Amino acid sequence: MKVLILRFSSIGDIVLTTPVIRTLKTQLPDAEIHCATKAAYASILAENPYVDKIHELGDSLNVLIKSLKRERFDVIIDLHHNLRTLIIKARLGVKSHSFNKLNWEKWLLTTFKINRLPNEHIVDRYMQTVAPLGVQPDNLGLDYFIPEKDDMPLDWLPATHQGGYAALVIGAKFATKQLPVNRLIELCDRINKPVVLLGGKEDVETANEIETFFQKVDTNATFERGLDELGKRTLIFNAVGKCNLNQSASLLKQANWVFTHDTGLMHIAAAFKKPIYSIWGNTLPEFGMYPYRTKFIVFENKKLACRPCSKIGYNQCPKGHFKCMNDLVFDFYLGE
């Protein structure tokens, strides 16, 4: 059976499709699995042994459709379910199964705070699209495969971090899903372990501010002795903007703990079964995007009537106070 899986973006959403890919490949006899995604995200699936071929969406949907028509698929699994995928399904004219995005239920929750969402992870909802093919969940979690060239040797990190560290993912797609820099600094201090900062090029300024703050502490010998007496051991290594996605994934894989906003790197960390401390601002774990099949702790402010204000996020707090992040309590302890 020749199967086409549609999911164009983004990092986390594509990682969350990997159980569907794996179970189709392992449970259907002679299955040939093709995935269509945006060119910018093709590298996420490039090393996946369960994917036989990747089709990249560039500037032209018509070009993609022409190449897909030549493949003569038996079935389409639509895990994106938007206008483009509707056009693809209509043009290819083969049997399809589509993911229910539950947009009406999300609207009720964000607008009226009425929760009609099912109590299940989005991965389990993805799996419902392949149930008609006789494919069942295998409960093995997410997959992420790092190419050998992007495996980061531990000695790339300073000696202070080679005995173990916490990875802190400082960025997020929207500002309302991201801690302000002063709260990130507070979190680093609260972690009280060697910390590796991770993020994209858009996060460099924030990362530099965090790094500079802790460097200023290091230059004050008297203050540093006081920190030693208190047992403070937060040492910052700034890897933000210095690694590609797979290299950042490699650093997550080697971390002892992962602190992260609701981002793609959170789901990559879940694929490696890392213990995750997930930080939630304007969105909710109830949307079904919490870490999948790994141990995790949720930090969220559940005392706000305005939350959730969006199913994705905003560039600034609609209310202006940003209490979902500014009033968030970091209540945790990391053992040795």
Nutshell version of this structure?
The protein has 336 residues and is an alpha/beta fold. The chain has helices at residues 11-15, 18-27, 61-69, 83-92, 103-112, 122-128, 181-191, 204-218, 221-229, 245-254, 264-271, 323-326; strands at 2-6, 32-38, 53-57, 75-78, 95-98, 166-169, 194-198, 235-238, 257-261, 276-279, 296-299. A six-stranded parallel sheet has the order 8-7-6-9-10-11, sandwiched between helices.
Written account of the structure:
The chain is of the alpha/beta class. It folds into two domains: 2-133, 3-Layer(aba) Sandwich (Rossmann fold), CATH 3.40.50; 151-326, Glycogen Phosphorylase B (Rossmann fold, 3-Layer(aba) Sandwich), CATH 3.40.50. It contains twelve helices and eleven strands. The protein has a six-stranded parallel beta sheet, sandwiched between helices. α4 links the parallel β4 and β5. α3 runs parallel beside α4 (83-92) and α7 (181-191) packs across α8. It is globular, with a radius of gyration of 21 Å. The mean pLDDT is 94.
